[in-house]
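Predict structure. Chain length: 118.
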Amino acid sequence: MNIFVDENIPKMTVQTLIDDGHNVKDIRGTSSEGIEDEEIWNLVTKEKRLLITTDKGFSQYRSKNQPGILIILLSKPSRLKIHQRVIKGFHHFKEKEWNGKIVIVRDTVQSIWSYNND
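Prediction complete.
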């Protein structure tokens, strides 16, 4: 699966996804590090990548046709907690089921929106 991880996703998560055979784009340490959310969104939609982030602002795209968004929102985040929630949330759906979905994983509650083309 093609995935874009926002800069706030732990490197251990990136490595786990790569080890699982996914094509992960991580812009940390590149000239694109720190780009605006709109630029991230354009890149994600152009390259058809699932976006994994802790930025709740991306939930604004729930009414748009998009390749999928996984948002981790924790009250007391740590790298390990973020990593665990990403892996759990990511495996909630099969690759082809992510298209058009926004999944928000919180400390205990998970929200899911699906874009409907009808």
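Summary: Residues 2-114 form one domain.
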